[in-house]
Amino acid sequence: MRRGRLHRALVAALVLLGAGTAAGTAPAWASASSPAGAPAASAPRAEDASLSPGLLRAMRRDLGLTAPRARARLAAERTAAAQEPKAREAAGAAYGGSWFDARAQRLTVAVTPDASASAVRAVRATGALVRTVAHSARQLDAAKSRLDRLSAPRGVSGWHVDPAAGTVVVDVVRDRRSDNDVERFLSRARAAGPVTVHQVAAAARTYAAGTVGGDPYYTGNVRCSIGFSVYGGFVTAGHCGQPGAGVSGWDHSYVGTFQGSSFPDNDYAWVSVGSGWWTVPVVLGWGTVPDQLVRGSAEAPVGASVCRSGSTTHWHCGTVLARNETVNYSQGAVHQLTRASVCAEPGDSGGSFISGDQAQGVTSGGWGNCSSGGETWFQPVNEILGRYGLTLHTA
């Protein structure tokens, strides 16, 4: 989308704040809960300032929801996000994971058979549904950690805990399923704990792109998208640049420098800004929706709707599919990513994922495209804030 010079000068500041929501399906998928030391997530506001006609149209296009159903779902998801930490605490050691049930429009919390009656009552008192599962979240996380220590062949795309299924799901590229090295990996994976094999169409890849024009930022001949503004700069994907690398904006003027970057293992980075650039709590809507204000970073549960903005494919929506997923990119495995049913393409890397007005993460990678469909992984924003001691710029 082209803009007039004056409008683009204003948008340049918005982009720094997190105006590229999702940037291409990159190497890492899974997500994880915010690590210890991460800044506390801001609670969702009672009113939803993001329910613009454009957002409702995007949810109809990507999720098949009418405007009334989209409004009801967003309200239910805000409630679920607030209930989740309380329900997790109430379940204690019997906690088996949680997710948003789109049909019931409620949070579902899994507990193990040894959960006490008082714990179950406490979970239900939060308003969540309760389901009994065989394995606790701690047991499933331990099994996944054992897989994380294995070396995976390229035919294995990644793995994550699925609390609803009660297993660790290993994604295998369909046409590599019978490869000997894949079979050996699966044999070792099954020995590590409860495992289910899921076949996918293609391996994950990153979505940085060569300099082909369009918004927002460039590092050398690589174009990526800004994630979210923090005080002093913005966060983005680690595979977009190394510490010390200079960054230029949409007009190729100097913006700032990569101050920290990690990839693989993680896929996050932060860029300091200067030279007349500044940050604002906004995600670019690309004309599909109005530019979105960022009011916090409360983590949306699995099953909740999420939208992203990126410099190549602009604004698209989907749902959160999995957290804490390990993705096996060609450059190496990336851990603790979140997977979403949202498409992306090269140049979208580093862009913002947002749920309502709550920042979720920055685009890492994925598979597919926005013509035929695909899935994308993002690095949770609270983990990035905690790692670098940053503060999200909010409205």
TrEMBL record:
**Which keywords describe this protein according to UniProt?**
Disulfide bond, Hydrolase, Protease, Serine protease, Signal, Zymogen
> Where does the Peptidase S1A alpha-lytic prodomain domain start and stop, copy by copy?
135-189
Tell me the Pfam families matching this sequence.
Pro_Al_protease, Trypsin
Peptidase S1 domain residues = 234-383
Residues annotated as signal peptide: 1-24
Q: Does the keyword Transmembrane helix apply?
A: no
Can you tell which superkingdom this protein's organism belongs to? Bacteria
Q: Which ranges are annotated Low complexity under compositional bias? A: 28-44
Listed InterPro entries = Pept_S1_alpha_lytic, Pept_S1A_streptogrisin, Peptidase_S1_PA, Peptidase_S1_PA_chymotrypsin, Streptogrisin_prodomain, Trypsin_dom
Region Disordered: start-end pairs: 28-49
> Which family does the record claim for this protein?
Belongs to the peptidase S1 family.
Quote the protein name from its UniProt record: S1 family peptidase
Organism of this sequence: Streptomyces anandii
